[in-house]
Amino acid sequence: QVQLVESGGGLVQAGGSLRLSCTASENIISINDMGWYRQVPGKQREWVAIITRRGTTRYADSVKGRFTISRDNTKTTLYLQMNSLNSEDTAVYYCKAGVALWGRGTQVTVSS
């Protein structure tokens, strides 16, 4: 089974940028939808961005224009470029592949 490992999280000041990566243990070219989700304590996990195998992207309204999702099928990696970060972006960010395959998450903390 494919395993996903997120990286790139950390502490950043408001207005700053981070780039998250999600590396799969196997080639992801056959996986259609891949996406990023995030969760804060006490709240449900929410969808952030999705990209299809062909590169079609969709974004949650809260991140549209600030975040960019991309995938490199040859390197088995999914990315999330996050710009103009604010405190509301603080969360654990999870990578998802297909219907129900999740990574363990990476913490993003934005200080104001």
> Which range does the strand content fall in?
over 45%
- Helices and strands, in order, run as EEEEEEEEEEE
Total E-strand runs: 11
* Whole-angstrom Rg: 13 Å
**Main beta sheet, described?**
7 strands, mixed
| Count of helical regions | 0
Q: What would you call the quaternary organization?
A: single chain
Shape: globular
What is the straight-line distance between the termini?
A: 40 Å
Q: What percentage of residues falls in helices of 4 or more residues?
A: under 10%
Mean pLDDT, as a whole number?
94
Secondary structural class: mainly beta
Poorly predicted spans = none
Structural features, described:
- The protein is mainly beta and 112 residues long.
- Helix content is 0%, strand content 51%.
- It contains no helices and 11 strands.
- The strands form 2 sheets. Strands 2, 4, 5, 6, 9, 10 and 11 form a 7-stranded mixed β-sheet that branches. A 4-stranded antiparallel β-sheet has the order 1-3-8-7, with no helix packed on it.
- 30% of the residues are buried.
- The model has no long low-confidence stretch (mean pLDDT 94).
